[in-house]
Specification:
With 338 residues, the protein is an alpha/beta fold. Helix content is 35%, strand content 23%.
């Protein structure tokens, strides 16, 4: 619906990912659509098991196969479909055109290499003719950029705190100034004050380099702080998408309403939390109709039998819910009779 296709850096169309085991087929991503514009940050929000990390790994070609299989879709990075590329091509763009900050900084770093060596390795991989001394110098610059003195580059990961490790991981991810940065819950393992510092630093670096960002999180506070647009994912599909203002101020989908209802109200401490009842559906046995139907207070018979279509409420805001498709159908019918 949006007409700004010319500045879209990452365009995911109808992505479907399955994990096939001897006993079952787990449908992790089910027709997901996602667009990230140049220099913008998109928040991908949903509960654990919704398909957020699988989506990020699909972009980098890192779905473990077997058992993982991408069964359908396109992932266009600057117009090139990554799903048609071989392993050699994917290795050439990881770190250079698209980078990922993984969830746990404790396991993202090599314990037997100094942090400077690990940053320099990425730089030399994508700059074949660069001398080791020059790469080490640039690695020191990256450490300074993320707030770590370059003198500490000769130290090993175990000599750094959790927050400092995550800064090193971010330095590695940004070393070659990628077009797209995928951040998979980058502050989960950090305490609140360090989390705020890391997020502030990521915001500054995004603005400095004009990097497009996919922020994978279940924390709506992080989305409000960093993101320009929000996609709400449930059972491997985007059920609501819009600008920050659209989704936060004109929330439509019952699932998104449930996510906001699960947050504490800082202005009214006496107000009780309203958790979403039930659990995510089993991805190897998804409901026939709307995947959220078994947990939804407003579900109808139609919701049980028929998957909802996408309904655009404005040129930036859409929702997949029968409540709104019926409303749109009525409006269109009224317009025809006028």
């Amino acid at each position: 619906m949006s007409d700004s296709k010319n500045n879209v850096v990452l365009d995911i169309k109808d992505l479907q990912v399955e994990f096939r085991t001897r006993d079952s087929v787990v449908k992790a991503v089910n027709g997901l659509d996602l667009q990230i514009k140049k220099g913008m940050a998109l928040g991908l929000v949903g509960e654990t098991g919704a398909g957020k990390t699988t989506t990020g790994l699909s972009v980098l070609g890192l779905i473990p196969s077997p058992p993982g299989v991408v069964t359908n879709g396109k992932i266009l990075l600057n117009g090139e479909d990554l799903l048609t590329k071989n392993d050699r091509f994917m290795r050439s763009i990881r770190g250079k055109q698209v980078s990922m900050i993984f969830q746990d900084p404790m396991t993202s770093l090599n314990p037997v290499l100094t942090v400077n060596e690990q940053i320099a390795e990425v730089i030399r991989t994508h700059n074949r003719g660069m001398r080791a001394k020059e790469a080490a110098e640039k690695a020191g610059d990256m450490l300074e950029l993320v707030g770590i003195p370059r003198e500490r580059g000769g130290e090993y990961p175990h000599q750094f705190s959790g927050g400092m490790k995550q800064r090193v991981v971010i330095a590695i991810a940004l070393a070659c100034q990628p077009d797209v940065l995928i951040a998979d819950e980058p502050t989960t393992a950090l305490d609140v004050t360090i989390q705020a510092q890391v997020l502030e630093m990521m915001k500054d670096l995004k603005n400095r380099y004009g990097t497009s960002m996919l922020m994978i999180t279940h924390d709506l506070g992080i989305v409000a702080d960093i993101c320009d647009e929000v996609s709400v994912i449930y059972a491997g599909r985007i059920v609501e998408h819009g600008t920050l203002e659209d989704v936060f101020d004109q929330t439509l989908h019952p699932y998104t309403i449930g996510l906001f209802g699960s947050l504490p109200n800082m202005e009214d401490r006496s107000q009780r939390l309203k958790p979403i009842k039930g659990l995510m559906p089993d991805p190897s046995n998804l409901p026939k109709g709307c995947a959220f139907c078994p947990r939804c207070d407003r579900a109808t018979e139609r919701c049980k039998m028929e998957k909802p279509r996408r309904t655009w409420k404005s040129n930036t805001h859409f929702v997949e819910c029968h409540l709104f498709s019926e409303e749109q159908g009525r409006r269109e019918g009224e317009a025809e009779h006028e």
